[in-house]
Every structure is written in structure tokens, then in C-alpha cells.
Design goal:
This protein is mainly α and about 300 residues long. The chain has one domain. The chain is built from 12 helices and 2 strands, in the order ααααββαααααααα.
Length: about 300
Amino acid sequence: MGFFLETLLGGLMAGMLYSLVALGFVLIYKASGVFNFAQGAMVLFAALAMARFAEWVPLWTGIADNRLVTTSIAFILAGVVMFLVAWTVERLVLRHLVNQEGTTLLMATLGIAYLLDGVGQSIFGSDIYKIDIGMPKEPIMAFEATFPGGILINKEDLIAAVIAAGLVILLTLFFQKTSTGRALRAVADDHQAAQSIGIPLDRIWVVVWCVAGVVALVAGMIWGSKLGVQFTLSTVAMRALPVVILGGLTSVPGAILGGLIIGVGEKLSEVFLGPYVGGGIEIWFAYVLALIVLLFRPQGLFGEKIIDRV
């Protein structure tokens, strides 16, 4: 029982990190109705900014001995960079594509992805960098009195999952309780109708891209701390695609629950079924599950069902 719970907790913590990346896809889709292929590049760009600012800030300020202050300043500076990226994307790209076909917007996000990859490499370099935000790497043993041998918990994964959960809660409240959140939902339903009742589409898109940029920054910071900041980090977004398909492109709670389902499913299937099939289930489990869901419920488990009347 203890081993099962240990695997289950590991899956839940990994699922929260998947959900964090998937949120970026959902946020952009809810505001613009387009799947944002630039989300992986945004995670990489934000992580590069965070890592490089963490190196440069001590040189600029001379406070190398205080990691907390250095990390905080680097996070703020990287956040400002992501806000500038969001503003630039809206000003130079999205503003000129209002009310265009979804395919046009999709291709625009592909162009933004390649642009961010190139600009990130030009500004911040292409080496492998490290983000040290002070999260402990050593695992701990918990519930030793309840289960023989206890349950091994990775403290870094636990803290990362708590951070991700806190951000998810804030975003959920933002969408449900604020006027801007309701305006975002209106824009997602119909751009032209939202404009006709006075909702400024350009401002809404700037807001949602800024929020998605902050989500990308937090995701990049956590994944960069775990894996190191390198250009393969943008592929983390590919791990979130099944989460979005499973939960639904229009559902913030769906992104959360989809991430948890896939995280737990990957861990349990690899540990308990892997030995019988030679392993490797964790690599393809999420994509097979997403394919099955697409066959029976194309909008995802929690997505809005689209009804076209003719």
C-alpha cells in the first residue's frame, strides 16, 4: 500500500506540472479561439530570461551573497520581459489579424514560436544554464509510522506542485470572479459580438498573453530548476498536449484534472504494467489516452460541446 501511495503522489505532483504548461494553451485559446503553438517557445524564452538574469543581477548589483534577493529580482525582470513580449505580439501581430480565420492565427503562433526561439538564442545564448531557486533536492521519508518503510517524497516536486496549484487557483478565481475574466470568456465565444458591446479586443489579448507569459515564466522556472535550461525545454509543451486534449481546450479546471489524470496514469502504468510489456509505457501512455478521448468526446472531458445550427 505504501509503494502504491508513493507512486500515486509522484503522479499527482508530475500532473500538476503538466497542468501548469497546459494552462498556457487554454488561456490563449479561451481569448483568441486559436491553439497557441508558441507556448513551448514562451516557456523556453521565460526560463532563459530567468536563468540569465540570475547570473547578471549579481554583476550589476554586487549582492551575490543573497540568493533570495537575486532570484526575486531575476524573476521580476523576467516577468517584465514576458509582459513586453505579450505587448509586442499583440501590437505587431494579433492586432492586424482581428476576425481572421483560425488557420491564419494558428500560423501566426507558429511564426511567433520560431521568432522567440531565434531571439532567445541571440539575446541569452544557447548554452545549458541552471536555475537555482532554492528548492531542496533531497527526498524525505513520510508516514513511517503508518506504512512499513514509509513513503519517499521528492521535496522539490512537492514544492513545485504547491506553487503550480496556487497559481491554478488564482487563475481560476480570475476567470470566474473578475470582470476581465468574464470579458475573456466573451471574446472567446465571439470576437465580433464582444467588440459590438464595447469589449476592447486589443486590450483583452494583451491581458491574456501577459497572463500566459507569467504562466510560462513559472513553468519555465520550475522545469528549468528540475531539468536545466536548454533548448530541448520547449518540448515540455509537447507533454502538455495530451493534457489539453483530455481536459478540453476551453476549460481551466479541465487542464488541471487532465494533468492529474495523465500524471497518475503514466506513473501507475509504468510501475505496475511496465514490467510485463518491457517498459516504456510512460512515453506513450498520455498520447494513447488522448487519442481514445478524441474518438468518443472530441471536445475533451470538460470542454464545451460545440453545436452548429444550420
